[in-house]
């Protein structure tokens, strides 16, 4: 796993085919009963305007009972919530990327040691570990 402290992005290389990994992600989020708010298929959108790019999809998901606690502390964190996973193809293979909740808390001048931040960190790590292990 790679983490960039400067921009808060965590990256994990996942072995497998892009479509297989995407399906795994959707299945795991559904199994955990986490609400999905949207899917953005950047490659498909690019093709619709005559452009091409590597496979890249964003899953927007979360639990309002958790995210709202952060927004009560600082409403501007809503710029980065709900949570997102980006699955994309790189020259090294398929990568799962997400924003570090600790980094987001710091960005919005909140205590990164808040219980809710730890809970979100643990969830994202758990989900990414499950996706990588299958």
From TrEMBL:
One family name in Pfam for this protein: DUF302
Protein name per the record: DUF302 domain-containing protein
Organism: Taurinivorans muris
Classification via InterPro entries: DUF302, TT1751-like_sf
CDD domains: DUF302
Lineage: Bacteria, Pseudomonadati, Thermodesulfobacteriota, Desulfovibrionia, Desulfovibrionales
Domain DUF302 per the UniProt entry, residue ranges: 40-101
Matching Gene3D superfamilies: TT1751-like domain (3.30.310.70)
Signal peptide location: none
């Amino acid at each position: 796993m790679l983490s960039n402290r400067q921009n808060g992005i965590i990256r994990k290389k996942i072995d497998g085919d892009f479509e297989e990994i995407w399906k795994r992600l959707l299945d795991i989020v559904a199994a955990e009963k986490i609400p999905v708010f949207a899917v953005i298929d950047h490659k498909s959108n690019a093709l619709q305007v005559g452009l091409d790019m590597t496979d890249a999809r964003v899953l927007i998901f979360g639990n309002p009972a958790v995210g709202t606690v952060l927004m009560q502390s600082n409403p501007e964190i809503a710029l980065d919530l709900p949570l997102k996973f980006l699955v994309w193809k790189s020259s090294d293979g398929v990568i799962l990327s997400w924003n570090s909740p600790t980094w987001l808390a710091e960005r919005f001048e909140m205590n990164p040691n808040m219980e809710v931040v730890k809970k979100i960190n643990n969830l994202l790590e758990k989900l990414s570990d499950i996706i990588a292990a299958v």
